[in-house]
Amino acid sequence: MANIMQMAKDGILVSAGPFDDQPTTISGIFFFKTASIEKAREIAASDPTVVEHRNTVDVHAWRGPAGMGAEYFRLHKEHPETPENMGMQLLVIMHHETAWQGTSEQSAEVMAAHRKYIHDLRHDGKLGAAGAVEGETDLAGLVIFKRIPTEDAKKLVAEDPAVKAGFLHPEFHAWWSADHVLPW
To answer: How many whole angstroms separate alpha carbon 59 and alpha carbon 31?
Structure first.
């Protein structure tokens, strides 16, 4: 925890929290603000739980929205007594579906519908953050819901045009984080 607190104090860590999945497949997630993916890998590899071989890391460049963690840090700087108010929200890792058989034109249409759907969920106050994952990976993006019932969030994911078309495959995680971390 001391390492996490120091990274936050240094402005590198903008958010972190454990997953409450059963069975556990991923123990948690860190969101870093770094100049490069290489720097993020270096920071993640130096975490004491990684050094002690209790955890492993996968590092990905996420094009999340601006302001992740900003309100949290502002509140806690101005009012250090502000409670953490840890709570669970659904974090969805979207994977590219390898079985997709559509054309590039169909892919563009499906992804345009997906982007509109994500925009509408944000506008309706359901999402806390979302964005694409960059690089050579099967990961397409992350979608983080606000603190709404998990089953409601899963139903919304099932209605995503890219999920319905078989273009994206969701992986669900119950993510615990402090209040005021998500920018939307």
So the answer is: 10
- CB–CB of 103/165 below 8 Å? no
Number of Cβ within a 10 Å radius of residue 103 = 8
**Rounded mean pLDDT, 90-114:** 87
Q: Which long-range contacts (CB under 8 A, 24 or more apart) does 44-49 make?
A: 46/3, 47/3, 48/3
Q: Are 7 and 13 in contact (CB under 8 A)?
A: yes
Amino acid at 170: P
| Domain 87-177: top CATH class | alpha beta
**What residues does each domain of the chain span?**
2-78, 87-177
**Does residue 39 sit in helix, strand or coil?**
helix
DSSP state of 61: E
Average pLDDT of 88-116? Answer: 88
pTM of the model: 0.91
Whether the Cβ atoms of residue 153 and residue 145 lie closer than 8 Å to each other: yes
